[in-house]
Structure formats: structure tokens, C-alpha cells
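Input record (one chain):
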Amino acid sequence: MFQINKEHSITDQNDFWNSLHLDIINSNYRLTQVDYISFIERAFLFSAFFRGCSTMELLAYQNLLGFHDYGYVLIIDLPILSSLDELDFHCFVKSKYPGHNILVGPIIANRICLLITEKTYYPEPVFQDQSNSFAKNLYQEIEHTYHTSVSMGIGSQQAMKSIYSSFIHALSSIYFSVPGQICYYSQVNYTSSNLHFDYALTEQHLIESLRLRKVDAYDYFGMLMNFIRPMNDDAKRNKILELLVLANRAMDLDSQTESKRINYLTYINEFMTLQGDQLIEFAYRIFMYIASYVKPQKSIDYTNNIVKATREYLEYHYAEDISLEDVAEQVNISPQYFSKLIKKNTGFNFTDWLAMLRVKKAKELLTNTNLTVKEVCFMVGYKDPNYFSRIFKKRIGLTPSEYVKTSSYFNN
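The corresponding structure, as predicted from the sequence alone:
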């Protein structure tokens, strides 16, 4: 069995995989204008709802994306969102509603938010009819396309500078909806929902979820905020401050990375002047900051022993005629199980990693030596120069010869 070299540092391990990871993504994916728009929309909505968006940022995004001055947030709780591609859902919404001005946010905790913008601020009865009609139609389209039931929460209409309030209203509504139901924010009865609510137990669940970095921490925090909402402002402040301190502390427990430390003195003046739902919005904003990396990342598990051993074996043997079966044998598991583990823990197949590593080494040799393409081909583990050329072009976008010419041109 292949032994892991203990001398390699964690930084070396991370750099090895991260470098190849970016190369694989670049080689597999060519960005289009639709991709860029999707990324910008997600960045804007994440800033607006989870980080805080300044007036200058808002104006910049508005000029860039062309959204209107008023709008409302619709949050969709969709069971398959954890495996749904964000770009795919972005394209789905845009294709179904080409006449609407809609921004599609990022997927967070199995939820995705839409910002539907309008030129006009409508009277409440008109707005409620229009938003409910849109939500019902969207529900049917999702059910037809993705074959699943969803729940939706609709927030209030707001001027764009106050759109965070609509997000909080939509988020509150989603806690009171069930699959197949659309909940409008004004329909929520916070007082009656608190009659059989166990605050202490929910608080325990919140702390445990934060400690284990589980996404349902957002749900538990929302439940607690809904319980706190009907209280007077002094009681709200006490409960909110207590929860935020507990949440910040929970993120420190068993943490492998440095948590975000909150200096509460910098917020105290603002906190004491807020009233009513402003306090709830403040609580959400600080909590989202504290727990912002609770969202599961589709990243490489550097600590996994199979990942470590694979990295070592690839680095030492990439130039040889190796296969998935060879590496599986070295780590003492079946090829089928090895293949699943690598895909699960790194995001890509073994063949992707091997091909990208060989291409990366080939680029170094082609750039820094006078070796021929054929010589480089053999040195990085390929026996057929034509096959090597096809793999290289697939990954880089150029043949080895074209790459050499391009590199020489820029170097000169």
C-alpha cells in the first residue's frame, strides 16, 4: 500500500489540488455573456441580503443590470436545490419570463431567492394579486420542469434601497409554508404560531447546527426570530444580543478555521436606536455574517486520507502508464469505491485529475525547455503524440505546437 509522505505540509496539499482544480474548471467551461450576468446577479443579491450593499454599490449594480426602482423578494424552498446548478436555474427563470425584470440569487441552504423588480409601486391589493399570480405560475413551471413540490415565501414590495426588508419578510413567510404552499408575508400570524413553540430546545438545535456547520442553522435562527418578533423592543434587544453571542461562540467550538469575531461595541449605538422589525433585520444581518460559511462548499476535502494518498501517488507516478485501478490498489480499496470517493471528495473524476496534472507538467516543459512536443508527450506519461495533442487542446484550447508559439510570442 502506498504510504503518505508526512513531510508535505497542508499548504502543499491545498495548493496542489487548488491549482489543478482551477485548471480543470477552465478547461471544462467556457464562460458566456449569460454566465457573466448570472454571476453578477448572484453577487448583487448576496451583497444585498447577506453582506450589506452601500448606495454606491446599489447604483453600480442597477446601471449594470438595468433593474427597476421597486421590487419584492420571492424565496423558493426546493428540495432538489442542493444538487441543482445555479446557472441552469438562472436560465430556466429567464427563459420562462422574458418580459419580467427578474434577478436570480445564489442557492443557500436549499433555498434560492428571486428579486422581481417593477417600475411602479402598486397599491397593496394590486401588488398582492400580481405577486400571487406570478408565484402560482412559477410554482407550476417548477413542478413541470423539475418534478417536485416547492414552498414559497413572498416579501413586501419595497424601494430598492430598502429591499432587505422584503427579503426578511419573505424569509419569515417561508417558515410558515409547507410543500405545495405559497405564503404571503401579511398572512403570517406570528403570535398564534408561538403558542406551542419550545424556545430553549430550538436554541439548542441552533447552537448544535452552527457547531457542526449544518445549513439548518438558518432555519432555527428564523424560528427564533419569529418567536421574538411580537415582543417589546427591550425584550427583543436582550434576546437578540444573547442569541448573537451564543451563535458567535458556537462557531468557535471544534472549529478548524478562525471564526469571525464580532466587536459588539461598534454596533451598540445603532442597536439601541433601532425599533420593531428593524431589530429583527439587524439580527439577521449580523447572524448571516457570523454564520456565512455554514453553507456547504463544493470544495476538496483535503483531510481525507484517500485524497492525500492519491495526491502523493499522482505526483510521483504521473509520467508512468497508470490507471484508476493502479491507484485503487495502492490505497487498498476497490476501483469502483475509489472512483466514487475521489468524485465525492474532490468534485472531479480521477481521469480529470490525471489528465490535468500531465497537461500542467507538459506546459512547464514546453515553456521552460527546448524539448520537442513528442519528447514532452512521452515524459508526461502519454505514448501517442496525436492523443496527447488532442488531450492538450481539450484542456488548454490550443495544440501543444500552438501553445509553444503563443508562449514564445508573449515571452519575446
